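Q: What would this chain look like folded?
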Amino acid sequence: MGTEKMTFGAYLRSLRRQKRLSQKELADMVQMDHTYLSKIETEVLPPPSEKNIKKLAQVLDVSEDELLVLALKAPSDLNEVITKDKSIPSILRRARNLSSSDWKEVEKLINKLRKEEDE
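A: My prediction, written as structure tokens:
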């Protein structure tokens, strides 16, 4: 199921239902109160912390990055990448409006550069 049009809460609910878990079962598995999980799924509350999103991703067998991006949160390990060089924030700002196909091309270029680096 694609996440393009889904909110974090709706996608979380969909994943939970696919795994045939009740809110209480999932909440217990990730050490979260089931009423808190319910409020996240219904968009009463915003997505949880990165730590809890990672727990949810593990239990629901989905990519942490997928859930983090849907929650509009940047993975914390990217801070090291972004601050590696003073030009990186500017490059990312200019890349802000790239399309999905543009990002695929960027990924191909990065893979090519990494391959050349390894040779």
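Residues 100-118 form the longest helix (19 residues).
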